[in-house]
Design brief:
Two copies of one chain form a homodimer. The first copy, chain A, has 585 residues and is of the alpha+beta class. The first copy, chain A, folds into three domains: 12-104, OB fold (Dihydrolipoamide Acetyltransferase, E2P) (Beta Barrel); 140-272 and 424-548, Bira Bifunctional Protein, Domain 2 (BirA Bifunctional Protein, domain 2), CATH 3.30.930.10; 291-415, GAD-like domain (Gyrase A, domain 2). In chain A, 29% of the residues lie in helices and 24% in strands. Chain A is built from 17 helices and 23 strands. In chain A, strands 6-9-10-22-21-20-17-11 form an eight-stranded mixed beta sheet, with helices on both faces. In chain A, strands 1-2-3-5-4 form a five-stranded mixed barrel. Chain A has a five-stranded antiparallel beta sheet with strand order 12-13-16-14-15.
Chain lengths: 585, 585
């Protein structure tokens, strides 16, 4: 036994006890006649004291030789500290060491093992095992564990069964790119790693499992954007004999439970909003509703004068920035520059200062009088002292631009508070989404999503207008989950594949097993999947998922610590019936 | 809402309630004026009754049209049954149906959805979604879920943190063959799927996580034997600042907890045995100790006469078969044939009948007198009425053969009872194992396993004798877990790699990150991994893991339901910088 206690548990009531502790040397202070060592493990830090009057010269000598991150084991007596440290749970006591053993030495770490480290991202990733010794990183991983335990226990209580679905499955060209796995035993053939267990969970519903969940790794070979990982974790769920309302209720329950159990927050409001409404009010299908700044559509009150920019626009829309009238001209110009950046892409921005005396001063005073501007203020809900920002143009683009501005301003104004939680269901998503590249409609969610009752008929005449039984769960402006009620009628499913441009043969080759299964009594069913990495980050009050993953990959999909991916032996390739196909080799 | 209740919950106290149920038609009995339907879901079966006096003609007509496995929804009144069925939890009541809707039709399934089905293995696997509707399969999956929840809750209680380690890692030629994943973004490079999270869990210990576990999929591209899967699930665990005793205690606790919580069995004995002892007493490093038939070594009492077969043998060893004297000559000949089968490979078998009167009759009476045979009986602990079976030859082979015979006989004699549980630790495994093929010693467990204190020195002089801090957890004759105390000293680890034939460069290329980590204060650590598939099967009183996996692969590593692996598009190959390397293409 290496220790009698951890470094986080000794208190004043342990005084006089003889204890054995083990851990890492966080830091040492050597006054010659006295040496203090902070001993660290996962559970905390305990102060050790070596004192030439009470400690043997041999032990003093070893203590003097200790370096940062040495692994040591000590035995000693718990004594009361002369100067207590109320900031530390163990701050009332220290250990007067009688015996000290060095279990392992350490080189000086490449960055400090402190809450605020001097190590940059790259160095921290390369030495992730040292980074994990830092309290914030370790706490994130423990936090993640707490969240998954809470999810599992909640869903188990509700009769969900966690079923493991296979990782070595079949590649389907639809959707994102698959990672594939060459089969040695089946020459010229490949498995694919799942992008999600979608078809398997539907098969489990056909199989009568009734309520399924799984916390499961999924894989997508996409060109990585910031904060995307090639492997990511989902909380995947499916229920049979349900309508949309049953799913929303169940997972509203889960979300409330998590916020209560993990964050100690009781959510009173759990609003719902259709996709159309979310787009109209926030220009965004995952609006952050912790703060106002709702969109005011101004076409009606801005398209009656000679301002051609507005008159020719599909949409004129504004938001009121609380107390924005305090912005200097320079600050407003900076905002205008911000929306004109290529990432946002607005052509310009009109603004209206709402003075405290009730008058207005705008950048378009040439075209609009005080009465006009008062009506803008009314539409955007602007108060005296606010600033109205107005964008115009194509409906979708303008909304997206103004939404970006709204989020940017909210961040700057400190309106996105990490400890405030506002969940929201967004429902009635469009079934299809226009793809510029292929000039075709694609399934917005996936091809198994059912259209809203009675809307299937619109598929031919007005495909963009067809709404789906699809919903997203939004938390603080992030999509944390999304799902749908599935098609369970084989004729509807066949029609959908047909509409999406699958030939009968393609549909059969890729989803034949699902179509077959639907011949044998598929129940009505639907589900949802949560992105665990993001969910955990948001519950943890952060938005960077990488900080909640033990061993993340970088933006090139590399694990810089183990240096993967890497070359493999020629013999391995040969066994897999493969040759490299590389130019300039 | 599709239902007010499930098909497993209605009881006599619900009589007169109006309820809505949904599920699958298990069977129908149509007497014309009355129709009974057994309605099934995951939770049970409820009997529906349609009666021409009380049910509308329209509903009667639909009821008459129902086929097996149709999905229906009914509304009706709970009534008391005239003839109750005490074998069914819902057997006191039935539902007098007033409204019936067919939610989905079904083709006639290719096999019966009954506890005992008429479907063969192949058909069941192809239509696994129908197989899962069968109660035994469904119950196995629910059982598996219960086991994993119990494991997770127990370990969480004990301060273990579940940490997800990556699936896209780096190929290491050591050990079994890796599945690899070509990287599109890193030309000519490959990820590998983990055979286990071994190095990552050790890095987590270096990182101070202290207690880690994970229920995790692992992958091995081996030629499949019966009941092996290319993807399998482990309960992977690791602890820092522990000695072997700490690990044995902790996971003895887990095992006791599972047997108690899952099987309602309190284990009183939890014996330990060294590898050497297990081999001597049972010829097996995972002995089933639920029954006796321990080995009796007979060299001393059988090598003093003219029987050359024994005199020239390294080992003469026997077991006493309880009441085996009742075997006919024909039955004994069948046993002899059984051990001479190529799979077992014995040259022959000597037997001794122990008569009720205390006399002996053996197949070697020419060489041995009654007194000799009495000493054999003493060594094998044979009683009057038993049969002694004796094999001889090379120590290791003979033990293996006799162990196979022991298990075979125990199975036949019904001594391997599914509801009886006998766990056992086997400790002190050899560090190295001789590999005939490469004529070299290999790590028996893996190259990170530490030798027993003071034994490292034997590596050069007598490598086969070096014992490791390695242990297996055995349950009912199956290895359900195995682990070791790891090397945490970088010099010892380097020496081990060196001994195992890794050049410095190879060791660095494959395990450099671990060697690096060991430079920065690695704590003493060790762990264990359980094979979840097997653990669940054994707790479930069965030995075939495939019955506890939702979507297993066949012996050629194929998923016959989804037909994977499969060919992929030429364009996919090209993106991955690969060409097929197939003869006769």
């Amino acid at each position: 036994m290496y220790r009698t206690h951890t470094n986080g548990e000794l208190r004043i009531e342990h005084v006089n006890k003889t204890v054995t502790l083990a851990g890492w040397v966080q830091k040492t202070r050597n006054k010659g006649f006295m040496i203090w060592v902070d001993l660290r493990d996962r559970y905390g830090i305990t102060q050790l004291i070596f004192d030439e009057e009470r400690t043997s010269p041999e032990v003093m000598e070893i203590a003097a030789s200790l370096g940062r991150e040495y692994v040591i084991q000590v035995t000693g007596q718990v004594i009361e500290r002369e100067s207590k440290n109320p900031a530390m749970p163990t701050g009332d006591i220290e250990i007067l060491v009688s015996d000290l053993q060095i279990l392992n030495e350490s080189l000086t770490p490449p960055f400090t093992i402190e809450n605020e480290t001097d190590g940059g991202e790259d160095l921290r990733m390369k030495y992730r095992y040292l980074d994990i010794r830092r309290k914030p990183v370790r706490q994130n991983l423990v936090f993640r564990h707490k969240v998954t335990m809470a999810v599992r226990n909640y869903l188990s209580e509700k009769d969900f069964v966690e079923v493991e679905t296979p990782y070595l499955i079949k590649s389907t060209p639809e959707g994102a790119r698959d990672f594939v796995v060459p089969s040695r035993m089946n020459e010229g053939q490949f498995y694919a790693l799942p992008q999600s267990p979608q078809t398997f969970k539907q098969l489990l519903m056909v199989g009568g499992m009734d309520k399924y969940f799984q916390i499961v790794k999924c894989f997508r070979d996409e060109d990585l954007r910031a904060d995307r990982q090639p492997e990511f974790t989902q909380i995947d769920c499916e229920m049979a004999f349900v309508e949309q309302e049953d799913i929303l209720q169940m997972f509203e329950g889960l979300t409330r439970h998590l916020l209560e159990e993990i964050n100690g927050v009781t959510v009173t409001d759990f609003p719902r909003m259709t996709y159309d409404e979310a787009m109209r009010r926030y220009g965004n299908d995952k609006p952050d509703i912790r703060f106002g700044m709702e969109f005011g559509e101004l076409n009606e009150v801005a398209q009656h004068k000679d301002f051609n920019v507005f008159n020719s626009a599909e949409l004129v829309v504004g938001i009121a920035v609380p107390n924005g009238n305090t912005y200097s001209r320079k600050e407003i110009d900076a905002l205008i520059d911000w929306v004109k950046r290529p990432q946002i892409g607005a052509m310009g921005m009109v603004y209206v200062r709402c003075n405290e005396d009730g008058s207005y001063k705008s950048s378009v005073d040439k075209f609009y009088d005080q009465q006009d501007l008062a009506r803008w203020a009314e539409k955007t809900n602007a108060k005296p002292g606010d600033l109205i920002c107005v964008l115009s143009g194509d409906v979708h683009k303008t909304r997206t631009q103004l939404s970006a501005l709204r989020m940017h301003l909210a961040q700057e104004l400190g309106l996105r508070k990490a400890d405030e939680f506002a969940p929201l269901w967004v429902t009635d998503f469009p079934l299809l989404e226009w793809d510029e590249e292929t000039s075709r409609y694609h399934a917005m969610h996936h091809p198994f999503t059912s259209p809203k009752p009675g809307q299937l008929e619109l598929l031919e005449s007005n495909p963009g207008a067809v709404k789906a039984n699809a919903y997203d769960l939004v938390l603080n402006g992030n999509e944390i989950g999304g799902g749908s009620i599935r098609i369970y009628d084989k004729k509807v499913q066949a029609k959908m594949f047909d509409y999406l441009g699958f030939s009968k043969e393609e549909a059969k080759a890729q989803f034949g097993f699902l179509m077959d299964a639907f011949e044998y009594g598929a129940p009505p069913h639907g589900g949802i999947a949560f992105g665990l990495d993001r969910l955990v980050a948001i519950l943890g009050g952060q938005e960077t998922i990488r900080d909640f993953i033990a061993f993340p990959k970088n933006n090139a999909g590399r694990d810089v610590m183990i240096d993967a991916p890497a070359k493999i032996d020629e013999s391995q390739l040969k066994e897999l019936h493969l040759k490299l196909n590389i130019e300039n080799q």
